[in-house]
Design goal:
alpha/beta, 5-stranded parallel sheet, Rossmann fold, 5 strands, globular, 147 residues, 47% helix
Length: 147
């Protein structure tokens, strides 16, 4: 595990390049001080985490994962299950994000270990607002814990 995992960061897991681009643009607009890492599906995220975990099993990972539900190769819920199986990874806050507002789906994801669920905003300004009110405070909390 390298230094990228110990720096508080936004981690976007979404197969839609346009959605990731909009998220990066919205983060820049909010003057976010946090770096952004991106993965196109859950398998890429898990592979990255597994790549060096044996050497750093005692480190904390100061990330906020913002993960889409419907992705090829490994879906968001499947990746969430994998994260919950590892004692270090299960401490990483995961916010699931999708276009659905189905309460049963939301509860299922919370039961799987998601810290929160956010309906993908229908507008760019809604995305900027979500970053300011939901995502940014989570990472700020991580920084405060490091002090």
């Amino acid at each position: 595990m390298n230094n990228e995992m110990t720096v508080p960061s936004f981690v976007l897991v979404d197969d839609d390049e346009d959605d990731r681009l909009l998220m990066r643009m919205a983060l820049a607009e909010t003057n976010s001080q946090f770096p952004v890492q991106e993965f196109t599906n859950g398998a890429e995220l898990i592979d990255y985490l597994e790549s060096d975990i044996k050497n750093h099993a005692d480190n904390q990972i100061h990330w906020l994962i913002i993960m889409d539900i419907n992705m090829p190769i490994m879906s968001g819920p499947d990746a969430l299950r994998k994260l919950q199986q590892h004692p270090l990874w299960r401490r990483i806050p995961v916010m699931m994000m999708s276009t659905s507002d189905d309460p049963q789906l939301v509860q299922q994801l919370i039961d799987l270990g998601a810290k929160s669920y956010v309906v993908k905003p229908k507008s760019y300004s809604g995305l900027v607002n979500s970053i300011k009110t939901t995502f940014e405070p989570w990472l700020q909390q991580q920084i405060n814990q490091l002090k």
